[in-house]
Amino acid sequence: MKILFLVEQVGPYHHARFLNLAIKCDLEVIEINSKSHEYDWDTQFNSYNYRRKQVNSFKEIIQCISSFRPNAVVLTGWYNSKYLLTAVFCQISKIIVVGISDSTYIDSVRYVFKEFIKIFLLKNFDIFLVAGSRSKNYLKRLGFSKLIIQPWDVVDNHYFSSWPSDKDLNYFKSINRLPLNYWLIVCRFLPKKNHTGLIEAYSQALKIDHGLPDLIFIGSGELEPEIRDLVSLHLLGNKIHFRGFIQIDELPGYYHCSNGLILPSTSDQWGLVVNEALACDKPVMVSKYCGCTDDLVFSFNGLVFDPNDSQDFIGSLIKFKSIRYKLFHSRELLSHFSIDSFSNSLINALNHLLLKE
After folding, report:
1. Are 197 and 307 spatial neighbours (Cβ–Cβ below 8 Å)?
2. Which of 23, 72, 338, 345 would bridge 96 by S-S if both were Cys, CB 3.0 to 4.6 A apart?
3. Burial, 231: exposed, middle or buried (Cβ in 10 Å; 0-12, 13-18, 19+)?
4. CATH code, 209
């Protein structure tokens, strides 16, 4: 089977998925941007078992499709002219079109006229690959009645879970000057990520429990100066630490040395950092507005809270410190959200459609 993926840029999370998928099919990946507008990932990888090409125009995309002659084309976006034109071309050429979506009904303000446009555009797709339950329900709400499969938002669980020894962890903690106890916050400094709400709630929670773990912020973004000022205003410089943007090869160490992850977003389509933390056997405290909560966050591995309710936010921080979680259940849960489950789901769906033709 031949599959062609059209992506903005191949980052380390894409690469892990593609390496697994390429074991099971002939895979070609086309990039339409040479650099990510969101993350400064290192995108040069040591090994490939798939073809990776960069294009600058719709004409070049068509040339790649015509040359490769795939059974299916997977589009990582669908509300964009290049993606939509590609979908139309594939429909005309009798090539299976797979869309990818992690959007949920509540992750953004929904306008009726835009929803009607989406309903019309969905007719160009044969399958949708989604992040999880909320994304699936949103597509159904838009009237998509064809095949919907999951998961898309996965990480290499083995990469994050494996760590050589406690000695290596202690060394990592030492060279990175990590506090004895800390919660990890891994996300860009953007309004919807709600760092300000977390700082406000954390400052109040500290008045109730002085022994709360420190906070370590990993990420970068437009609001960083403002957030640093807020930390100074609350005199929390000794409790909240900034580590900037960190490449994926260092991330597992920060998770393994932590007491858990907090994701306080007021809007988030999924929350891939939750996958990462659970893969590292860490508990998670996740906003109810994150799309992953219905699929990944349960009483045995974390808690869900309302970031717009200050009392719930403060109480959840205190509760998060004291609860003892049964994290071994997360491993079974993550088996359904792995790079292998992603590739198997896609291959099985395409085989099903191809047999019907």
Report:
1. yes
2. 72
3. buried
4. 3.40.50.2000
State the residue range of the domain holding 225: 159-334
Under the phi-then-psi rule, with left for phi > 0, alpha for psi from -120 to 50, and beta for the rest, what region is 218?
beta
Quote the CA–CA distance of 220 and 246 in Å, as a whole number: 9
What sign results for the dihedral spanned by CA atoms 7, 8, 13, 19? Answer: positive
* 205 and 279 fall within a common domain: yes
Dihedral sign, CA of 350, 352, 353, 357?
positive
Give residue 282's identity as a one-letter amino acid code: K
Give the number of domains in the chain: 2
DSSP class of 155: B
Q: Do both 309 and 351 map to the same domain?
A: no
pTM greater than 0.85 (yes/no):
yes
- Residue-by-residue pLDDT tens, the chain, 357 positions: 999 999 999 999 999 999 999 999 999 999 997 665 566 777 788 889 999 999 989 999 999 999 999 999 999 987 778 899 999 999 999 999 999 999 998 888 888 888 888 888 899 999 999 999 999 999 999 999 999 999 999 999 999 998 766 668 888 999 999 999 999 999 999 999 999 999 999 999 999 999 999 999 999 999 999 999 999 999 999 999 999 999 998 999 999 999 999 999 999 999 999 999 999 999 999 999 999 999 999 999 999 999 999 999 999 999 999 888 877 788 889 999 999 999 999 999 999 999 876
Residue 67 sits in the same domain as residue 197: no
Q: Both tokens of residue 292?
A: 């992953």
